[in-house]
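Weekly sync, protein design subgroup
Attendees: M.S., D.O., the rotation student, P.L. (late)

Item 1: inverse folding check
M.S. brought a backbone from last month's batch and wanted to see whether the design step gives back something sensible before we order anything. D.O. pointed out we never logged the input encoding, so this time it goes straight into the notes. Structure tokens as presented (236 positions):
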């Protein structure tokens, strides 16, 4: 199968796929620029901060590669936070709201943050231009009701982030259950594979306990180089 993705000037995407018959050749591709997101840790697993361009070298197959661009940790970040407010989250909603508040409170004023909420629909509850105080008020108003469009919100978050460049991330607070999405799990995986955006999942409610949901969250996070976190301790 050959799949083509085109990003238009307005930020929208066109995707098409053609299934081919068996052919006697191996397709190849060349990339002029490869974007790599890296987190550096020391021998004890603690993050090493404050590294500049001079501290980083890139290699491919043992050959040194030139760094054409370097975006350090002090640059602004474009972040989409999506919070599951479906009925299945009701037992965990109070804890989830507080976890979201603490996460938002830990971000910097230079970061651009869009806050989404989702159940069987997707709501923008705080736009990227909103103040930190407005985002916190919006998080406080979230209540659990309705069904779940988990796959759809992942695609929406990635669409929003693809309009921007630099350091980007999609952060999901969810139990991982999907009931009414138009998109499938495979659609989500393919979309993440074509995006340069890491996806991070903070498991909530049943997503911390049920093996099937944990497998879903692990897969969504891992395919794009992100990570899934499992804890009911808000301070973590």
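Designed sequence read out in the meeting:
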């Amino acid at each position: 199968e050959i799949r083509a993705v085109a990003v238009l000037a307005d930020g929208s995407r066109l995707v098409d796929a053609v299934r081919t018959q068996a052919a006697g050749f191996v397709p190849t591709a060349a990339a002029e620029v490869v974007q790599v997101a890296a987190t550096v840790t020391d021998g004890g697993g603690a993050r090493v901060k404050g590294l500049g361009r001079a501290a980083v070298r890139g290699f491919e197959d043992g050959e040194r590669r030139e760094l054409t661009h370097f975006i350090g940790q002090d640059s602004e970040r474009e972040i989409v936070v999506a919070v599951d407010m479906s009925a299945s989250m009701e037992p965990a909603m109070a804890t989830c709201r507080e976890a979201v508040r603490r996460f938002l409170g830990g971000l910097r004023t230079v970061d651009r943050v869009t806050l989404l909420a989702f159940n069987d629909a997707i709501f923008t509850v705080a736009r990227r231009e909103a103040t930190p105080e407005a985002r916190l008020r919006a998080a406080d108003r979230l209540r659990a009701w309705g069904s779940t469009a988990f796959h759809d919100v992942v695609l929406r978050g990635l669409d929003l982030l693809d309009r921007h460049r630099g350091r980007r991330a999609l952060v999901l607070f969810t139990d991982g259950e999907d009931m009414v999405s138009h998109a499938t799990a495979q659609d989500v995986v393919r979309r993440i594979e074509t995006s340069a955006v890491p996806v991070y999942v903070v498991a909530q409610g049943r997503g911390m306990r049920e093996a099937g949901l944990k497998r879903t969250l692990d897969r969504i996070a891992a395919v794009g180089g992100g990570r899934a976190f499992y804890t009911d301790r808000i301070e973590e």
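Discussion: Residues 93-105 form the longest helix (13 residues). The chain has a mean pLDDT of 89.
Action: P.L. to compare against the previous round before Friday.
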